Each structure stands twice: as C-alpha cells, then as structure tokens.
Amino acid sequence: MAEQQTPTLSKVVGVLGGMGPAATVDFYAKLVRHTPAQRDQDHLRVVIWADPTVPSRQQALLAGGTDPTPWLEEGVRHLMGAGAEIVVVPCNTIHAYLGPVLADQPVEFLSIIDTTVRAIQRRDARRVGLLATDGALASGVFQAALDAAGIEWLLPMPSQQEALMGVVDAVKAGRSEQRLHAQVQEMRSDLRERGAATTIAGCTEVSALLGDLSAGDDVDVIDPALELALRTIERATRS
Amino acid sequence: MAEQQTPTLSKVVGVLGGMGPAATVDFYAKLVRHTPAQRDQDHLRVVIWADPTVPSRQQALLAGGTDPTPWLEEGVRHLMGAGAEIVVVPCNTIHAYLGPVLADQPVEFLSIIDTTVRAIQRRDARRVGLLATDGALASGVFQAALDAAGIEWLLPMPSQQEALMGVVDAVKAGRSEQRLHAQVQEMRSDLRERGAATTIAGCTEVSALLGDLSAGDDVDVIDPALELALRTIERATRS
C-alpha cells in the first residue's frame, strides 16, 4: 500500500445553515460533489452549524416578527469557535441581516448575493428573472446588488410569486414532487418570454428542488447555491 | 399571518463527519428527510464537524498507518464546544476507534454498530450478510457486536470483497454510476443465496450509493446510516 501523502490543508469552511435544513443538505452536497477529489483527504474541512429554530425570515421582514440576528450571532460564534476561516450562508433571504453580524469578524465572508451577481456578469446577461421570497424582495437585498451592477431584473407576476412561496414552504415541509418542479419551470418560462436571458433561482429551497444544475446543462437558470459552492471551493483551496 | 409558536428545542446533534464527505451528506440528508417537520423550526439543531483529512482508516487498521485518534479527539472537542448533546459518526469503520475517544465525554453517543444490531433484532433476522471494508472486518467491530447478539454473519467471497473496496473508493472519488450499483446488488444476491436473510450495507459509502432505502421498500438490506438517522431523531426529540 502506498505511503499516505500529507494533504495540503484547505481553509476551514464554516456553513451557517438550517435555513432551511434541506437547502443546507443541498449546498453541502454541491460543495462535496464539485470538489476535485480522488479520496477523502482531498476534500475540504467543513463545519456546519444548522439551527433551524432561527425565527422565520419571512415573518421578520414582512410582519414585524422576531429579529433573527441573535441566532445568527450565536451561529457565527460556534463556527468561529470551531476554527472557520471562511463563512458562507446557504440562504438568500437571511443575507438581509448578515452585514452587521459579520462586519467585525476576522473571517472571510462569501456572500451568496455577490457571488450570484458575479455569475451573471460572467455570462454577460443584462436582464434576468428573479425568483426570491417575498421577504427577500421586501429587503431589496438582491435588487440593490443587481442595480449596482447595472443588471436589469424582472419579477414573476403576482400569482406566480404566490405560487413560488408555496413551493418554498413545500420544500421546507420535505416535499419535492413533480408538480413543484413544473411550477418553477412555468415561472422561468414566463420570465424568459418577458425578456429574461436567465433566471436567478434566488431561494435555496428552489436550488434544493432543482438539484444539481451545472451551468452548461441549463443556461436558463443561475443556481446561487451552486455558484456559492464553486466559489467556496476556489477560495478554500487557494494557497 | 399567524403568530410564531415557540418550538420545543431538540437536543443538539453533533455529527463527526467527513469519513467520507459524501457519506456525511447522505447521513445528513436522511436525518433531514426523516424528521417529521412542516417548517424549518420543526427540524433538529445539528452541528457537523467534517474533517476529511482524518488519516485513512484502512491504512491504520491494515498497514500500521497513522492512528486517527487525535483527529477524532479534535472533532469531538469542536462538537462539544458547539454544544452537542448527542454525538453520532456516520462511518462504520471508524467505530473501531471511538470507544476510548468518547468514553469520558458528558455526551450521549449513538453507535452506528449497536443501532444496526438493534435494527436486525427488530426484524428478527438470525443470519445476515455483512458488507464492510477490509479495515472494519480486520477490527472485528461488527462481528463482535453480531456475535454478542447471537446473530450469524456471512462475508462476501474474496473476489467480491475486493470489488466492494473498489466501490467504496469510487464513491469517495465522487462516482455513483450504475455499474457500482450493479456490483453491490450482485454481492447482496450472492449473500442471499448463501442464506442471509438480509445484508448490512456496513460502510457509509455503500449507504450513500444506495441512497434512501426505507426499511419497508427493500427488505434485503439494512442501511446503518438510515437506522442511525432514525435513532438520532428519536433521541433528539425525546423530552
């Protein structure tokens, strides 16, 4: 048996997850699947803090519900305590709250929003559809980043936005049936007809439902969870 | 919008993972999928420490390679620091090393080996096939537990045991093609013909390859990762 090589240690990746749990599984699966590795020891060191009891972001952003910030601060504390050198959060909506939480932390934070905007710029798309939760839209977190990059954005029609929220809740309840896929396809197809070169699957529950879309296979959609996984791998393995 | 209910907090589940990464994804996916939940806040709080740089268990058990114990101790320290109240390890082979590591820790440890033996006893199977790595077999960790429970066990023929190690390495390298499934099916079918009432998929890479087999759908196989996920959910939610 060959001598074991001493692996070059990657940076420790901290994942603030649980928002929701299936989306965290999906992100972690993408992180593992896309890491170039022939054996365990080639993979990234990852610590995941998944606390699904973080209060609902929708309630907080839309209805004056409990501010999730203390839960996020606790999660970041756990990740830092475990030695995280990079922090990522596979939930688009919660990015409305992350700035102050991570501002003074001695850690590299990779924003899913910024990562998605970069992915759009790489494809040179000028007009995109945006599938995001009501709460994320109310926070303006995606729209502000797209505006700043000079990218036009379109939202689904109100009835489809309502259907989108139903899809997100269904995935959070553990469902993934074909009807949900069909609904998302219809949203994407409407946005395409209205001039969107591509559509952002801007909620990690939608990412989880769509599964592992690689950029080349499905040019009509940008998966922020996949883009964040790819960027995380790139940053964690950079020497 | 309805008032949010204060969730009953589950115990914090600590997962010592990364051995290998795809197996940890598979275990976490099973944990999430089988938790009865209608919304994020119904799910378990989970912390995962996934360090794939733990030295090869095969080399340690078979060829005098580096003892993985210090890596395990570090992982448990991180999990305890993050407040883990239950610790699980979705890797069968590493259970050969876990006893001393967890013996004096003020935490509930759920062994994948014991959990699997209980699952066999529930099905009242008296003679089982055992698919496990060369290292796990050399350690005797499964055989001792089966012997103690009065359960007869059969191993694959040598050529199939060699094929099994190839399957495990392929999954660790990110592969999951149909040929690998067919090889595992052939092992199971040979063991069945030799009198095994059921077969233990006793390596979490095999669990990951087989995916989400529920007990009722596939009576010929026992998936230790699934059994451990179900037991973890039961223990974490018990008040």
Explain the layout of strands and helices:
The structure is a homodimer of 239-residue chains.
Chain A: E1 13-17, H1 21-33, E2 46-50, H2 57-63, H3 69-81, E3 86-88, H4 95-102, E4 108-109, H5 112-123, E5 127-131, H6 134-139, H7 141-148, E6 152-154, H8 158-172, H9 178-193, E7 198-201, H10 204-210, E8 221-222, H11 224-237
Parallel strand pairs in A: 1-2, 1-3, 3-4, 5-6, 5-7, 7-8
Helix pairs in contact in A: 1-10, 1-11, 3-4, 5-11, 8-9, 8-10
Shape of chain A: globular
As for the CATH topology of the largest domain in chain A, it is: Rossmann fold
Oligomer: homodimer
Overall pLDDT score of chain A:
93
Indicate the CATH architecture of the largest domain in chain A: 3-Layer(aba) Sandwich
Strand elements of chain A, count:
8
Topology as H/E string of chain A? EHEHHEHEHEHHEHHEHEH
Overall CATH class of the largest domain in chain A:
Alpha Beta
